[in-house]
Amino acid sequence: MSEVKLLLPKFLTEKMAEEAIETVVRATLSPPMCHDIEHAMFHIVVLVPGMVVEIGNYPNYPIRPYLLAEHSEGNREKWPYDYVEIAQCKALQLWHDRNDGGTDIKPHLLFPGDTPFWGGVKRNGIVVACSGVQPYFDRMIAGMVADICIAYAYHAWMLSKDKADNELCFLT
Q1: CA distance readout (Å), 52 to 42, 115, 125, 127, 165
Q2: Could you give the CA distance from residue 121 to residue 31 in angstroms, rounded to a whole number?
Q3: Would strands 42-54 and 126-131 be described as parallel, antiparallel, or unpaired?
Q4: How far is the C-alpha of 43 from the C-alpha of 129, rounded, in Å?
Q5: Interatomic CA distance for residues 134 and 42, integer angstroms
Q6: How many C-beta atoms lie closer than 10 Å to residue 105's C-beta?
Q7: What is the SS3 assignment for 107?
Q8: Does the residue 65 lie in any domain?
Q9: 113 dihedral zone (left: phi>0; alpha: psi -120 to 50; beta)
Q10: Is residue 170 one of the residues assigned to a domain?
Q11: Does 158 score more than 80 pLDDT?
Q12: Domains contained in the chain, number
């Protein structure tokens, strides 16, 4: 029996994704932004690529979505809808390119049980979806989380000794 491993991005960690989410939630729920958001009830999902490595199966290493972080805001017992399920569905639609992150869904690519709502982003290989507020704010929140995650990963990479060119530096 061959060994199977799941490899995850080494410069984007669960802790980084959680910190990105916390930063965006604080900013979103603070004035002046909070005046425009209908209610402080939403769910955020962060998916990253996970590579399934099976010894002896090179180069057939499939990429699968891996749930790096999730966050619920507000009292879930008072939520009028299941924002967790909607955000997770949005994330999978984005992951599989059945939603382009724009201002509408792709009806010809909806599967049974899919959400018809939009409000997430797919950037540089990661997916962040949000559900619970207006769709344009869902997308804004998701975009900010994605951008912070990407920035944190670049920063971690720049600080590491694990670069192709160890002489590479930024603003020395």
Answers
A1: 31, 28, 16, 18, 28
A2: 24
A3: antiparallel
A4: 8
A5: 10
A6: 18
A7: helix
A8: yes
A9: left
A10: no
A11: yes
A12: 1
Contact yes or no for 22/149 (Cβ under 8 A):
no
Nearest CA among 115, 105, 106 for reference residue 83: 115
Amino acid present at 82:
D
Among 138, 159, 163, smallest CA distance to 25 is for: 138
Asked whether 107 and 99 are in contact (CB, 8 A), the reply is no
Question: How far, in Å, CA of 68 to CA of 91, rounded?
Answer: 12
Instruction: Establish if 168 belongs to a structural domain.
Output: no
pLDDT (tens digit per residue) in 51-80: 999 988 888 999 999 999 999 999 999 999
Q: What's the whole-model pTM score?
A: 0.89
Angle at 51 between CA 50 and CA 52, to 5 degrees: 115
Going through the chain in order, the beta strands assigned E by DSSP cover 4-7, 42-54, 63-73, 120-123, 126-131
What CATH number should be reported for the domain holding residue 93? Answer: 3.30.450.150
Q: Which domain holds residue 73?
A: 4-159
